[in-house]
Design a protein that fits this description.
There is one protein chain. By secondary structure, this protein is of the alpha+beta class. It has two domains: 1-39, no CATH class; 41-79, no CATH class. 36% of the residues lie in helices and 10% in strands. A two-stranded antiparallel sheet has the order 1-2. The radius of gyration is 17 Å and the shape is elongated. The model has no long low-confidence stretch (mean pLDDT 68). Keywords: Signal.
Length: 84
């Protein structure tokens, strides 16, 4: 139940962010995430090598992600639409 409520709160915040983006050029959004919604990452699952020139992908736990190379990073910056 707590996760459902947390998800609804985050959805409402992101909806507000989408509406706010049409009103001015820049926004700062601060979200306090309760511990029940905390995200835990294992640093060994990710490869950051900006000296690499490839644009390939990496599979972690069955999910495919683009490699953290400089070309992929620049593509992300060019195509990103939401800043969290």
């Amino acid at each position: 139940m707590r996760k459902l409520i947390g998800t609804l709160v985050l959805s409402a915040l992101f909806s507000g962010l989408a509406l706010a983006q049409s009103n001015s050029a820049g926004h700062t959004v601060t979200v306090k995430v309760p511990p029940v919604l905390a995200l835990s990452l294992n640093a060994t699952d990710f490869l950051f090598d900006f000296t690499a020139s490839g644009t390939g992908s990496l599979t972690v736990g069955g999910d495919t992600y683009p490699l953290a190379t400089e070309p992929n990073y620049l593509t992300f910056l060019d195509t990103a639409t939401t800043q969290l």
